[in-house]
Amino acid sequence: MNSEPDKSGDNAVVVLSGGQDSTTCLYWALDRFRGGAIESVTFDYGQRHRREIDAARKIAAHANVPNTVLPIDTFAAIGGDALTDAGIAVPGADASQGALPATFVPGRNLVFLTYAAAFAWKRGIDHLVAGMAQTDYSGYPDCRRETLDALERALELGLERNFTIHTPLMHLTKKETVLLARDLGALPVMAMTHTCYKGERPPCGDCAACRLRARGFAEAGIDDPLVAT
Amino acid sequence: MNSEPDKSGDNAVVVLSGGQDSTTCLYWALDRFRGGAIESVTFDYGQRHRREIDAARKIAAHANVPNTVLPIDTFAAIGGDALTDAGIAVPGADASQGALPATFVPGRNLVFLTYAAAFAWKRGIDHLVAGMAQTDYSGYPDCRRETLDALERALELGLERNFTIHTPLMHLTKKETVLLARDLGALPVMAMTHTCYKGERPPCGDCAACRLRARGFAEAGIDDPLVAT
Lengths: 229, 229
Hints:
homodimer; alpha/beta; Rossmann fold; 5 strands; five-stranded parallel β-sheet
């Protein structure tokens, strides 16, 4: 699949949100660490839509991978972002005002990966897999690889374990992510994923997340099994 | 107080646990950022002793600094460490087995500082102050400056804000920390702090934390106001 050292037989923890990207990562990990044990963690951080967590559980069960839902009540206590605060409207695709979108939860991915590392540490696992992509960088600076390199270093030093944060989608376009899912045999399971910021199913088709997803499938020339159902 | 650039008038967030070190840091911040607004955050992460959180609240009120208690339920869900898991015995001073003590909560300080940064981000604050000291490095690798430098970089990149993590105690001995508290006029408030791992008051005097504290005061030639009361 790639030219990096053979990691088959190693164990890994996948951060599984229940969306398209993290689900593709789960199947990437099952391929990359073939023969090893894969675990998945899903964060219940007060996101508006329980549907996302339900999707993660179902996808993990479907893939025969243990799934642990870890609660995070801290972001809601810090408050003030559209993904966890019911009082703030989710902006449309072009409504991002200022430098960062209203859906930005400061530090979210750093916290997710630090908890994933703590979870992995308890189990003697070195490999973390997550779905961040540079495509999202303009909106979410904690998605870029440079941020994760710094975090990887902090985790290595702070937990005294040689963690690697794998981000197989980092430099892929949405089209390429769809093609990767196809190559991994993960297309059918895409029907189980959740993407819509508004929590609708079938997806609203209008929010930024829905539009990004639709464009990826369209450019790949593949029907989205979620929309088709 | 030091030769770094003048930061008076800047605002800062202090991570206040209610212990001796973070309380000294609070007073350090009040001196260093004189004229600025100081806020404090305290984490309720399932530590065995509510007394620690009560101490933080009282100390902040005494110092006239707003205090926000932020809940963290995630460590308890990940499980398996002596500071949050009632099923695991707290080891005595010399009982640390293996590379890391049973009281090590993997990633704790990384999570604390990332949340403090998220809290500061919402308020437009750049300065974070925390009580980590290299003295604790052998037991807690997330206390060393090298770890925090990597985290500072991750926070800068991930939250797009020029954070500085101030650790005024980093290179001080426990004796020097006691002398710093004295110089800052913070000795009386030490009677309000909580240190004992066993949650006893007056402190048990036997656990690793109590012994470390007692040695610091003894070497400084100062009576510990907590023990004297």
